[in-house]
TrEMBL record, chain A:
This protein's record includes keyword Oxidoreductase: yes
E.C. no: 1.6.5.-
Lyase listed as a keyword: no
Compartments where located: Membrane
Cross-referenced NCBIfam families: NDH_I_L (TIGR01974)
Phylogenetic classification of the source organism: Archaea, Nitrososphaerota, Marine Group I
Annotated Pfam families: Proton_antipo_M (PF00361), Proton_antipo_N (PF00662)
GO molecular function: NADH dehydrogenase (ubiquinone) activity; NADH dehydrogenase activity
GO biological process: ATP synthesis coupled electron transport; electron transport coupled proton transport
UniProt domain NADH-Ubiquinone oxidoreductase (complex I) chain 5 N-terminal: residue ranges: 74-121
Transmembrane segments: 12-32, 44-63, 89-109, 121-138, 144-163, 203-222, 228-248, 287-308, 314-332, 339-360, 372-396, 416-436, 456-480, 505-525, 565-585, 613-635, 670-689
Name of the protein in question: NADH-quinone oxidoreductase subunit L
Automatic annotation (TrEMBL), chain B:
Taxonomic lineage: Archaea, Nitrososphaerota, Marine Group I
Protein's GO biological process: ATP synthesis coupled electron transport
Pfam families given in the database record: Proton_antipo_M
Protein name, per record: NADH-quinone oxidoreductase subunit N
Presence of the UniProt keyword Membrane in the record: yes
Matching PANTHER family: NADH DEHYDROGENASE
């Protein structure tokens, strides 16, 4: 089966429609709102569904390994083209984004019911989805960057959606400070923080993009691959690795990787549907997608003899470090959405780790498939967990897990679905997608044969154990034990605590069931993607996968082909994490507070982790407060003196003077006008004669 | 012979027929017709014309930028581009007049004059004969003299009309003088033959040829609002009804450029003059004077008038470096089309403000964002587009103009300086555009929303869509301008 470029009109049209439809919806929703505010939700659902269906129409083609590359002239005067590139990578991604977004939009109709700014909400949600699909389907970096910035803008608007900054929409605990920095953020502050922090990455990405453009003269992915002379030239100048690392800087910002990870926590001030969208389908996945888009390209350059290893080493290490860093913090946070947010950052770290390791091993496709597969499985269970958490917030009216507890009898559906999705996150063996994808990452890391493989493998396994622990802790705190005072108070006030309405639990139910359902056949699903990508990488990038026929004999027949060490590590990590979590939070045999306070080492560790490793505070001191001081000093000693009195006044006076002179000529007297006209004619003839 | 179904002839028939018929019908009906009824008839005629232009283009019945033709009129893409720009402006003016002309006298004559003037503009763009050009020029100008003074009880309007007429008459005289000189030394009035004649001119006669070109620059420069032929312009735009100011700024001004492109650029190339520097100097003077004078204005219409002088300077960049860069004229054409919509929309917004609130002073439009949100939004978008803020259409045409100027730097040393002047001026222009935006959105607190005239809303929405769409996806227009750009070098290889 050969990969061929077939672009029938109809298929190409679907590829365009995937990202155009959400934008169309965003444009018409305000107009529809004038007629009927209630139907805006239906319009959003309809367009999200159409976009997702368009993506699904292309799915068979992806499975056959075909691709569509359709281009139109955009601004031919400067040689720019716009286009869509629908290859297996982007089609699968577009389906994941499309369908999960669709479910989240359905969920939002219940979650956002009655909000008086609902039109603004729908507008930005659809804009968000459209921008993300634009990133996924772009065939060049510049167009991708438009989507990239669109995603950034939409996230800003949605994180700060409740811009009236009511106390219940804040995150963090009021009054808590770390190194003198408040750890209590309002929605508007958080929106700004997310926007600025991701912008740091965007600027790097822009620099990387134009650096490449300066050498290659094109932004197109296909064109960059077709003629690699630019890479040779860049490499000779020592600029290739810096340029691609700058591009990766964009991914660090968007995907909340270390050191630009801190915005992700405060992003929890947005409505939970937004959090689900950011974490499962749109924003943070954009960075992973960018790496998945660029990885094979860079690896192909490496195969051609250009040194690019550092690029993949940086990706792998950033991923590994972030995975551990954020997982530890998820263990101690009391807010349910924040736990999930930390968890997302940590899981994205896994994906980066896998994509980075891919470039460092012989078998590029192993790590590549593992990272991408983990992204798909994470998208499902994390969207489900967030929506479920949203319905908890909706019902309980508090973001703190200490205000929940004992809910398993009262919210049976949510309880069941959260377990299903939570097991996916923990990597419960053999029946969840999370297990297979994580296992694939372990195997890819372990088998890569790189010098860094072992330390990264250890970090990955440790993180898996921590993940299992904090997920169990979350489940234990929310659903087990005694009801909290908050709930007792609510019940005594006559609130009946029960599952959320159908429009809300069905979407997360579907995803939770899928987590298990696909998990059961998870290994063969991974095999399918592996096969597909092997061919895709070979046909599109010329990355050959050496066929290794080393049968690793497993004790169980159906597990043949699995790496026993990876599986073993997976199982141990799950057992340890789940076991500890059970002891502390489900069985409640040991009181975690007493346990921590029993020992100065645990106490200190807990404090460091709870204070976010002091990273957030350091960022505020270094990049917010110090620059403010500097700005004040510059203002006082330089601006007030040199600029204000010197340049500013001078410039203003000279413009004012110029304006006076010009106006002075405009006397209103027709004779003088005519005189100027005559003089002008004379002037023109004179300069023509010279 | 030019075919009877060619674009200019059909437009002449449609607009001329309706334009002449309107006052007659009005008298026959004993002047009982409403403003709206005359307006709708006018609109139908204009839409039919623009439809015909587009239909001819779509069917490829239009020649690509035929500068020379044996006929008096050429049915080419160059003329069609101008025709589209001018018809859009005429439609804006007509729609804007629905509310503006309410309760004012003689609506039938008013609309009839707009139609006649539009014919003149369109024919100027299609004309390939100097006499035809002059007749069209006068057909365009004379109705506008009357329109500027249409508020006959208003002394400012009268003064504006008189000043405009004085200059118009002078300019016409100068143009006709230029034509007679050109005819005298070449023996023809066909533009193609005149230019061929210039190329083989006897050395003794060259100064006379120069004089003729100088006359054309001055004569057409009057309509284009080039410094120093601009003095009448702020007074006339300020005094005229704002809808007519839109017609002048966005429409007749473009006719000046059409004529200049056909005659001045070609004629000067034929005389192989060092005329480029002269146009370059005028371009810089024009944009600088326009923008600096605009900064201190307190009257919206007057501010926009000066801003349109500034824009004439940008457009002239493309003309002045035409021989050195392929995208110079293309950029000019693109900017002409954009400016027609941007400036047209801005003036129609002012017309809406005048209709609803009867103010044009900048201090009086505080809080307009709350009072007339759609008009204010349209005004903001058009101002930003005028300033060249991406992703709006003005950005791309300015980019092309400035890029062409930098391009020309490989041939002439002063090329890049035109781009520098253009960028500095664009920055300067943001000072007064930003001031308007600030007054509308950041000052005033207590205003309540008032009813905006529907016709104004329609124009605003169309312009916003146009400016944003072209800003995001300029390719179709760029291709069209490429098709409409006369190839200078090709023209002179007989």
């Amino acid at each position: 089966m050969a990969t061929e470029i077939i672009a029938t009109e109809g298929d190409a049209m679907f590829a365009w429609l995937i990202w155009i439809l959400p934008f169309v919806a965003a444009l018409i929703i305000p107009a529809v709102a004038k007629v009927s505010k209630l139907s805006t939700g239906r319009v959003a659902i309809g367009f999200a569904a159409m976009s997702a269906i368009s993506a699904a129409m292309l799915f068979p083609m992806a499975l056959e390994g075909h691709e569509i590359h359709s281009q139109v002239d955009w601004i031919s005067a400067i040689g720019l083209k716009a286009g869509v590139l629908a290859d297996p990578l982007s089609i699968i991604m577009a389906n994941v984004v499309g369908w999960i977004s669709f479910l989240i939009i359905c969920y939002s109709t219940g979650y956002m019911k009655g909000d008086k700014d609902i039109v603004r909400f729908w507008f930005w949600m659809m804009f968000f989805i459209g921008s993300m699909q634009l990133i996924v389907l772009s065939d060049n970096l510049l167009q991708l960057f438009f989507g990239w910035e669109g995603v950034g803008l939409a996230s800003y608007a949605l994180i700060a959606f409740w811009y009236r900054d009511k106390a219940k929409h804040h995150v963090g605990k009021e009054g808590r400070t770390v190194l003198g920095i408040m750890e209590y953020y309002s929605p508007t502050h958080s929106g700004m923080k997310a926007f600025i922090m991701t912008k740091v990455g965007d600027v790097m990405m822009l620099a990387g993009m134009f650096l490449i453009f300066a050498f290659a003269g094109t932004f197109g992915f296909k064109e960059l691959l077709a003629d690699t002379a630019w890479a040779v030239n860049m490499s000779a100048e020592g600029l290739l690795v810096p340029a691609v690392v700058l591009l990766f800087g964009g991914a660090i910002g968007k995907s909340a990787q270390f050191p630009l990870n801190e915005w992700l926590l405060e992003a929890m001030t947005g409505p939970t549907a937004v959090s689900a969208l950011i974490h499962a389908a749109t924003m943070v996945k954009a960075g992973v997608f960018l790496v998945a888009r660029l990885g094979p390209l860079v690896f192909a350059l490496g195969a051609a003899g250009i040194l690019v290893d550092q690029f993949f080493e940086i990706i792998a290490w950033v991923g590994a470090f972030t995975a551990l860093l954020l997982a530890t913090q998820a263990m101690v946070n009391p807010e349910i959405k924040k736990v999930l947010a930390y968890s997302t950052g940590s899981q994205i770290g896994y994906m980066m780790m896998a994509l980075g390791i891919a470039g460092l091993s012989e078998q590029f496709v192993d790590g590549y498939t593992a990272g991408f597969y983990h992204m798909i499985s994470h998208a499902m269970f994390k969207a489900s967990l967030f929506m479920a958490a949203g319905s908890l917030l909706h019902v309980v009216g508090s973001r703190f897990m200490t205000d929940m507890g004992g809910l398993r009898k009262k919210m049976r559906k949510t309880y069941a679905f959260m377990w299903a999705a939570g097991l996916g996150l923990m990597g419960a063996p053999f029946i969840t997608t999370g297990f297979w994808s994580k296992d694939a990452i372990f195997a890819a890391v372990y088998e890569s044969g790189n010098e860094w493989a072992l330390p990264i493998f250890i970090i990955a396994v440790l993180t898996a154990a921590i993940t299992a622990f904090y997920t169990t802790r979350m489940m234990g705190l929310v659903f087990f034990g005694k009801e909290s005072k908050h709930i007792e108070k609510m019940e005594s006030e006559g609130h009946h605590i029960h599952d959320a309405p159908r429009s809300m639990w069905i979407p997360y139910g579907i995803l939770a069931v899928l987590t298990i359902g696909i998990g059961v056949i998870g290994f063969s699903a991974e095999g399918g993607i592996h096969e597909l990508f092997t061919e895709y990488l070979d046909e599109s990038f010329g990355i050959q996968t050496p066929h290794i026929d080393v049968e690793i004999s497993g004790s169980l027949g159906f597990l043949s082909g699995l790496n026993p060490i990876a599986v073993g590590a997976s199982l141990v990590a799950f057992a340890v994490g789940f076991g500890l979590g059970y002891i502390f939070y489900i069985g409640r045999w040991v009181d975690p507070v007493k346990f921590i306070n029993s020992n100065i080492f645990f106490y200190a560790l807990h404090k460091v982790i709870l204070n976010r490793w002091y990273l957030n505070a350091m960022i505020y001191w270094g990049f917010v407060i110090a620059p403010l001081w500097a700005a004040r000093a510059i203002w006082r000693y330089f601006e007030k003196t040199a600029i204000d009195t010197g340049m500013n006044t001078g410039l203003e006076r000279s413009v004012r003077f110029g304006a006076k002179v010009v106006q002075g000529t405009q006397t209103g007297v027709a004779q003088s006008y005519l005189f100027v006209f005559g003089a002008g004619l004379l002037f023109v003839v004179l300069i023509l004669l010279i | 012979m030019i075919e009877l179904t060619s674009t200019p002839i059909i437009i002449l028939a449609i607009l001329g027929g309706v334009g002449v018929a309107l006052p007659v019908i009005s008298i026959a009906m004993k002047e009982r017709g409403t403003v709206a009824s005359y307006g709708i008839v006018t609109l139908i005629a204009l839409f039919a014309s623009i439809g015909y232009v587009l239909y001819q283009l779509a069917l490829d019945h239009v020649a690509p930028a035929a500068i020379f033709s044996q006929d008096v009129l050429a049915d080419d893409a160059f003329g069609s581009l101008f025709a589209i720009a001018m018809l859009i402006v005429a439609i804006f003016t007509t729609v804007g007049s629905f509310s503006y002309m309410k309760n004012k006298a003689n609506p039938s004559v008013y609309f009839s004059l707009i139609l006649l003037s539009t014919i003149g503009m369109v024919l100027v763009a299609y004309a390939t004969d100097l006499v035809m050009l002059f007749v069209a020029w006068e057909l365009m100008s004379i109705p506008t003299y009357i329109l500027v003074g249409f508020l006959k009880k208003d002394p400012i309007s009268n003064e504006a009309a008189i000043k405009y007429f004085l200059f118009g008459a002078l300019a016409s005289a100068i143009i006709i003088y230029g034509i007679s000189l050109a005819y005298g030394i070449t023996g023809s009035t066909n533009i193609g033959e005149v230019i061929q004649g210039f190329m083989v001119l006897d050395a003794n006669l060259i100064p006379i040829g120069l004089l003729a070109v100088g006359m054309f620059i001055a004569g057409f420069g009057f309509k284009m609002g080039l410094v120093p032929f601009h003095m009448w312009l702020p007074d006339a735009y300020e005094g005229a009804p704002p809808t007519i100011a839109a017609l002048l700024a966005a429409g007749t001004k473009k006719a000046g450029f059409a004529a200049a492109l056909r005659v001045i650029v070609m004629g000067a190339v034929a005389l192989s003059l060092d005329w480029t520097l002269a146009l370059g100097i005028i371009a810089v003077m024009t944009m600088t004077v326009g923008n600096i004078a605009a900064i201190m204005q307190k009257n919206l219409a007057r501010m926009l008038a000066y801003s349109s002088i500034g824009h004439a300077g940008y457009i002239l960049i493309g003309l002045s470096i035409a021989p050195f860069s392929t995208i110079g004229i293309q950029g000019s054409l693109f900017h002409i089309l954009n400016h027609a919509v941007m400036k047209g929309a801005a003036f129609i917004a002012v017309a809406g403000i005048v209709t609803a609130l009867a103010v044009t002073h900048i201090e009086k439009i505080k809080g307009l964002g709350r009072r007339m949100p759609i008009t204010a939004l349209g005004l903001v978008i058009s101002l930003l587009a005028l300033a060249g803020v991406p992703p709006l259409n003005g950005f791309w045409s300015k980019l092309m103009l400035f890029a062409s100027a930098i391009d020309a730097g490989t041939v002439v040393w002063w090329g890049p300086w035109l781009a520098v002047a253009g960028v500095l001026n664009s920055a300067l222009s943001l000072a007064y555009y930003g001031w308007i935006i600030r007054k509308m959105y950041f000052e005033g607190e207590t205003e309540k929303r008032i009813k905006e005239p529907r016709a104004i809303i329609a124009v605003m929405i169309f312009s916003i869509i146009f400016m944003v769409t072209i800003g995001v996806y300029p390719e179709p227009i760029i291709q069209f301008t490429e098709f409409a750009t006369p190839a200078i070098n090709v023209a002179f290889t007989p």
